[in-house]
Structures are given as C-alpha cells and as structure tokens.
Amino acid sequence: MIKLENIFKWYNVGGIPSFVLKDINLQIEEGDFISIMGPSGSGKSTLLNVIGMLDEPNEGSYHFMDQDVFALKPKKRTALFQSYMGYVFQSYHLIDELTVYENIETPLIYKNLSGKERKAIVGDMLDRFNIVGKKDLFPAQLSGGQQQLVGIARALAIAPKLLLADEPTGNLNSKQGEEIMELFAELNKEGVTIIQVTHSEKNAEYGKRIIHLLDGGIVK
Amino acid sequence: MTQLKFIFRKLWRDRFFTLLKVLGLAIGIATCLVVFKIVYYEFSFDRKHPDKEAIYQVVVRFNRQGEESGFGGVQSAVAEYVKENFSEMEQIVPVNDRFFFNVSLKRLNGERFQKEDPKQIKSTVSEYFDMVPYPWLAGNKTTALSQPNQAVLTQSRAVEYFGEVSPSEIIGKTMDYGGKTYTISGIVADLNFPSSFDGKEFLAIPKTEGEPNWFSFNSSNKLFVKLDGNQKERLLTLLDKKYNEMIPDAWKDEDSSTNYSLLPLSEKHFAEDFAAGNYVANKKIIYGLIGIGIFILLLAGINYINLSTAQIPYRTKEIGVRKTLGEKSGRITKGFLMETLVICVLAVLVAIPLSKGFEIFYEDFLPPNIGDYSATISILIFIVCLLITLTLLTGLYPAYLINRVNVSEVLKIQGAGKLSFGNLSIRKAMIVFQFVIAQVFVIGAFIIASQIKYMINSDLGFQKDAIVNISLPYKPYQNSEINPFVFKEALKKHPEIRQVALGHTPMNNMHWGNSLYRTTDTGEKELNMNFKYVDDDYVDLFGIEILAGRKPQLRDSVGSVFINEAACAGLGFTSNEEAIGETVQASGKNITIQGVFNDFHQRDLHASKAPLSLMISTNKETLRGYSIKLPEKSSDWNNALTVLENEWNVFYPNAPFEYEFYDAEIAKLYESDMRQSQMINLATIITIILGCLGLIGLVTLTAYQRTKEIGIRKVLGSSVSDVVVLLSKDYLKLIGLAILISIPIAWWAMHKWLEDFAYRIEIKLWMFLVTGIITILIALSAVSFRAIKAALANPVESLRDE
Q: Euclidean distance between the first and final Cα of chain B, in Å?
C-alpha cells in the first residue's frame, strides 16, 4: 500500500543541513497496524506528515496505492487523500465553531456527498461512538476523551483505508487512552490500516509492528 | 445555509472584533452614502428635461480690460427683440423674477390667507410650459398665461395657499399679489426631478413691467430659447450688433467688450457666473466631496483588512484542519469572501441610520430641496455596487494570506498560534497611513478653528458688543412713512437705552459704490471706494476713532464727507491733518472733508482694509436700519429689549419686531468658513475613530499573542505599567512616525488655505506639537484600555499548562 524510498528531509541551520528524516525506507501493507516510536525531535511527526501528504521531503520517492505521489498534481493528491486517509491529532483539532455533528459532517461536505448521505453517515458515526447525545455540543463543552472520540469519528466518516494518528492519546488520561487504543485495535481488525505515532510503550504494543526512529533514521 | 450559520457563529464568538469591523466599515459606508446622495442630486439637475440639448439660456460675457466675467441676466428689451427677428425659432421664453411684499387670498371656506415675502414667483409666457414639461392638473397649457393678470400655481403652492382642495376648484379664483388681483388659470404638478426652472408661481408678463431697455443687465430677467444648432451663430451676431447700436458711444471702449452667449441647459447647474439667482453647484466642491468619500471609505477598508489579517493566526488552525479534511483553497477563499460580505451587509445596515442621522444633524450641509426628490433606486444600485467592490477589495488580500497557511506547520502548534506572517510591515504601513491622514485632519481642524477664533475676536476697529440692529420697515402698510429720527428720539428718552444710531452698519455689504475726485496741481486723482450712509451718532455708538478733524454733526448731511485713513492716503494726502477742509468731488458735487477716522474692517477678514467714506444722511431710504446700544450689563438687556419692543409697537404696529445682535451678525459673515470647519471637524473625528478602531484591534491581538510572555514577565516581577508600556510602545512609535510625515503635508495644505485670508494667523511650531500630543494621547487611551486589561490578567491563568 505504501512504499517510501530514500526519503530525506532537512532544514538549513546556519548553512549546515540539519536532518529531520534521513534515508527512510519503509513498506506498509494493507491491514497493517504500525506504531512509530522515538524520542522528541526524532522525526516521528514529520514522517507521519509525509505519509499523510501534508509535508514534502527534500528527496526520495513515495508510492501510495501504486501511484507516485510526488508526480501527482496537487488536485489529484487532495483527491487521493480525501478518498483514502483519515487524520487524528494529539490535540484533536476540532473546529471550535462547529458542533460535534457539524465537525463530523465537514469532510463529507468536501467530498460533495448529498445531504441525505451525509446525514446517514454522521448518524452511523454518532451511534457507533455513543455520542448521539452530544451531537449539538461544541468542542469546548466536551472532555478531552470525548473530543478525541469526535476527532476519530470525523476521520472515519469518509471510510478511509488508512488512519493516521499523531499521538492520539497524548492529551488523555490513561483510562481514556486505553479506550482509544482498544478502538484502534478493533478498527484494525475490521481492515483499516493504521499508522500511529506514540511515546508510550504500552500503546505501541497495540500495533502489529513497531518502528523506532532516532535522529531521523529508522533504528529497527 | 450551513456556511452562513457558521459565519454568524464565528462572528458572534469574536464579537468584539466584529463590532470593530462593522463600525469601521459603517462609518465609511455612511460617509459614502451621504456623498453619493449629494453628488447624485447635483448631477441629476436638468438631466430629465426632454429637450435639454436644445434649450439654452441667453447670457452675457463681459471683458473689462482683460478681466472676464459672466452674467446670467439680460436687458429687458432682448426677449421682445429676439421674438420680432426670429419668428422661426421654436421657443423664446423670458423668465423674470417677481418680488411682492405679500400675497393674500380668500380660501374656498372664506378664510383669509396671507403670506409675507413670497418667493419663487416668475412672470413668463405660455411657451414656458412647452419648454418645461409640467403635468397639468387643471387649466389649459396654451391659454393659461395668454391674458394679463393670469396666474398658474404649482400643486405645492396651491396646497399651501388654498389647503387640500381639488385643483379644478381653484381655477378661476383670484389672488392678490402686492395689491394687484390675478385670476388662477392653471394648476400644474411640481416637477419630479431637480431642475434649474425653480419657479413655483407663474404670472403673465404685465405690459407695465417697465420700459424695455438695452442698458441695464438685470439678474431678474432671464431668457431661455430652444433652437437648432445652426441658428446659434445668427442669433448671437444679431444681438451683439443690436447692443452696439443701442448703447451710447461714450460706453464703448477699445479694451472692453460685451458679447452675448448661449449656455446649454445641461451645463447651467454648474455655471456659477450665470446663476443669476438660480441655485448652482460648484464642481470643484463636488469633486472634493467625492474625494473625501473615497478617502474615508479607503481608510475604513484598510481598517478592515488590518483587523482581519491580524486575526489570521487564530484561524490558521481551523484552516489547517479543514485542509487535512480535504477542503480546497477555492472554497476557503469563497468562505472568507462570504464572511466579508456578511460583515459589509451588517455595516450597511448600521450605515443607513447613521447617514440619516447625519442628514438630520447637518441639514445645512445638504443642498436645498434635496429631500423633495426620491433617489431610492439609484441609492440601492449604489449600495449593491459598493457592497461588491468593498467585499472584493477588503476580502481578497486576507483570503490570499489565509490560503498560504502551511498545514503541517500549523498543526504542530498547540492552541492559538504565535504565528507571525510576513505581512507585519504591510500592517504597520497601513496604520501609519491611517494616522497620517488623521493627523493632517487634526492639524487642519486646529488651524481652521484658530483662524475663525482669530477672525471673530480680533479688533475690528469698532465696537460690536451689546448692539442690536433692526431694519427700517419699507413696506407701505408697515408704517414705512414714519421719520426714523422721531423713533430715535422716542427711544433716547428711556434710560435703559444707551445710544441709538441710524445707517449702514460698519461691517457688512451694506454700502454704495462711488468715486471721490481730487484736483491737484498734477491733475485729477480718482479713488473708487465704498460709501456708507449714516447719521450723526453713528461714530459715537460704534466707537469709531476720529483721527483728525471733528466728529460728524447733523448739518454735515450737505456738502461734507468723512474718510478713513486708507482713503486719505489713496487720495494722495501726506497726513490726516492735511486732508481736513480740502474739497473733493463726488457725483459732480463739491464736498469738504470734515474728518478722518480709523480704518475699521468693513468686510470679513478675507479682505484687506479698503478706502471708505461716511456720508451723513437724514434720508430714511438710504439709512436702512437702527443700531441700538444696550446697557453694559447683559442682565439688563431683557429689560431694555422690552422697552424697545413696546416703543416699536407704538410706532410700527404692523411690522414684526425683529432684532439681531450685531456680534452674532458679524459671526454670520464667517458662516461658510465655520461650515468648512465643521466639515473638517467631522472628517477628523471619523478618521481618528477609524484609526483607533484599528489600533484597538491590533493591540488586543498583540496582547493575546503575548499572553504567555506577559505572564512570565509578571512572575518575574514586572509591574502593570511596564506591561502597558511594552504593549503600547511599538504602536506609539508608528503614530509618532505618522505625525512626523503629516507635518509637511498639513503645513502645505493649511498654508494654501490661509492664503485666502487677508488677515490670518501664522502657522507656528507649537501647533504641530499640541496637535501631535493630542493625537498621541487619544491613541494611547485607545491602546491602554486593552493593554491594561492584559496586564492585569492573573499570570497563573496564562501559564497553566494544558
């Protein structure tokens, strides 16, 4: 599904390149559950952003579903992203001015689905995550765990093949974190490919494969 | 719909900023609305006349020794002459102004109605109604003015005179115009568009309106013709030839010429030279007004751009999230423009009552009768165009910035960002620009106010306090036959009244023009100047100083003249004393100079002091009015005025008792200056408010951005005032820069403005200092309100980790 070859990314600090990603080679198959670990500044999030097409490396090639991503036009890339990927953030990144319902609905609007279809999908999501009662609340009125549930529901609304999660439990207490992880495992069983970045050994264990990053390179 | 709901939610959440934005734009839009109304009104004059291209006013152009001037009135003989020699011309319509002491009539219910000094009465011919397309409500257009003593009323006058009765009932009724009876032969609807044909009552031209002559150009006699382009040449040549035949040879002069000319109706409203009593507009002022409108709108727009770009860092997260959810940039732009449009619409909703309020409070600034014509459709179109332009103009730049948001950057940041954009210098430049404009206005307002104060308070060379003026009644039924000196004596008996004098007051345009001739060894010297006719107590009452010779006496009414120093020098006397007893000629008569008085101001301070003669007179026709000096203490004035009124009612029972304080009358001379000053004051207030709105917005954001920094500084021991200084410093620097830039601009502009005054204040450095300090103080108070709030915040709150 994903094939990264010789990915380099660097910043010039005082004329000397400072590498964020150094010669990353990575292959991920459909149905995988990958945990990326590593200390702060090791390039975990950058790698995730490159996979999520939010960031571009300076060198290297990236194939997603057998398409050369960097050769695609931005429009095509967005379309690819829209149809296959869902993103979950550490700080949830819900839109403050929208209700729970509207937050989940937003990506569907961008996919130009009809109102009826959207209603059905959002209804499903609310049911599935047990947040029907919260649908008219604004993010600020929810607890962190609930916000993250909404964030995941929003990411899953478009039925993505790939779920990217950047420290999804970073802002949650351990019990909430555990629930989210259980949910991920369940999703993975249903066939969703998951890549998560995490600090916690315990959460990383939920993955089928753990990748350790240090100073921009894969150590094992 | 969802989008609209979202926009409103966001606007409500940021309601403080929404308020700033809406208020700023509303002020700009309101200004534009008022300007548009005025400009539209002025430019719509005569536009709707069906034959406006073919109608011309016959006017005269004078050239006197190279000095060109124009006049809109013609001699009374011209109309008849054109009619006799141009039978083929389509329409020849003389329109003469008529003045009556009063009109009176008996209403249908028998009630008497009378009106003093009715205006807008014209005498004309039936063809007038072919030229001007009035809808006829009653009567016959072709015969309405065919007989002498016939009158046609517009509907508005008919209602005023007869009340709400049907037009056909008024036909055949009679009215009394200054003692003559006229029969009403027609009622027309008022024109529903602004027109230079401003008559409201039309009378047939009487045979006795004076012997037609070729010598006197009279602004009351206007002549309009409708003709083909090829007839122009012949008409003008014929008129010029006839005029030269008719005038005496002595009037002809190599260096001067008088030529007839045709003024197209479409240009009439802006032809000030040829106004002859019509309301005309000055194109320069109109363009100035448009300039002010555009400027203020520009400032409001800049204010909006400034505030919305400053808010972008807080929206980057939202934009970033939306992008990760697959939103395309076109949609983001659209959304942002939509938001701008919503704000603009809100601003229009606020601006409409704002402009209405302006129209009520500043009615004097608006052209007369503007309220009579509706321009709703044009105004609506204007508002829609304004909305579209404003939305695009103010929305596109912030939308462009928003689209540049780098998603992966944004999402790294927790909470609202410390993101700074490369456009900071643009924002600073905008603030500086706003305050340069504001400061130019502040300096301008200050200097104009100082000049007006100077003019009103400066020593005029005579006393103007505690004096009231009353005009002599001139209508026969108001006892105009009474000898004013008898009334004067009656007043003098009362101890409450200090002094009474008769004559042209020192400072106004009451005077006659004439020349004094002095014969000396080297030849004859002529000095043209103003003559004021006064009585013997005049010099005393106004405190005019006699520098040589003696004070006037009643017997000076024959063979004497008093001149001022300027006249003395102008006639070639080396000293004031030398002039005393000398004989000069005026209107062919010998008169003796009996005294020389000081050069007091006869006109407002736009003009320099000029030669002047005082002639002593006992003739009530030339003396014009009473000047009465009240007691020194203003608390005694009421008493004195009561005495005055009682005495007045004994002598002039039929004339209204109307007096005016002379100092107020003098202040009125500066009405147009004061109006200008009020305009500038208003513009100053608007620009300052706009500038401060922008400042408040930016400071709020800076304070928010630096919440953490402020918290840390406070924990480290910084005081509240330190924090306020920290937040305000940068902006005050910008304002200081703006003030520096504004000084040369303001100096140049005000220097030009002051050139119009013969007596003027000097522009001094301290004026720039004072106005600069004022602006800085205003800006500081705008800034510090928010800054103090930020400084007072509890650091525990801002430093708490998530």
A: 35
CB contact under 8 A, B325 and A55: no
Residue B414 has pLDDT above 60, yes or no: no
Q: Residue B798's pLDDT is what?
A: 66
As a whole-number percent, the residues of chain B with pLDDT over 90 amount to: 33
Alpha-carbon distance values, B752 to B286, B387, B448 (Å): 19, 36, 12
A5 touches chain B (CB under 8 A): no
pTM over 0.95: no
Q: Give the separation between CA B149 and CA B177, rounded to whole angstroms.
A: 10
Evaluate whether A26 touches A4 at the Cβ level (below 8 Å). yes
pLDDT in tens, B201-224: 999 988 765 677 887 888 888 999
Give residue A11's pLDDT: 84
pLDDT digits (tens, 9 = 90+) for B624-639: 899 999 998 888 899 9
**Per-residue pLDDT tens digits for B239-267:** 898 888 888 777 777 777 888 999 999 88
DSSP string, B567-597: HHHHTT-SSHHHHTT-EEEETTEEEEEEEEE
Q: Which of A55, A91, A110 sits opposite B327 (nearest CB)?
A: A110
CB contact under 8 A, A91 and B415: yes
Residue B762, classed as helix, strand or coil, is coil
The predicted-structure confidence for A126-182, as pLDDT tens digits, reads as follows: 998 889 999 999 988 998 888 988 999 998 888 889 999 988 888 788 888 888 899
Find the residue in A nearest to B318 (Cα). Answer: A95
Complete DSSP assignment for B456-498: HHS--SS--TTEEEEEPP-SGGGTTTS-HHHHHHHHHTSTT--
ipTM of the complex: 0.71
Do the beta carbons of residue B31 and residue B292 sit within 8 Å?
Answer: yes
Are the CB atoms for B745 and B768 separated by under 8 Å? Answer: no
In 3D space, the residue among B790, B584, B568 whose CA is nearest the CA of residue B699 turns out to be B790
Tokens of B352: 């409409």
Where b means 16+ CB within 10 Å and e means fewer, B427-437 reads: bbebbbbbbbb
Sheet with A2-13, strands from edge to edge, namely A16-28, A2-13, A59-64, A67-68
Question: φ, ψ for residue B548 (rounded to 5)?
Answer: -155, 155
Do B325 and A110 count as a contact with CB atoms less than 8 A apart? yes
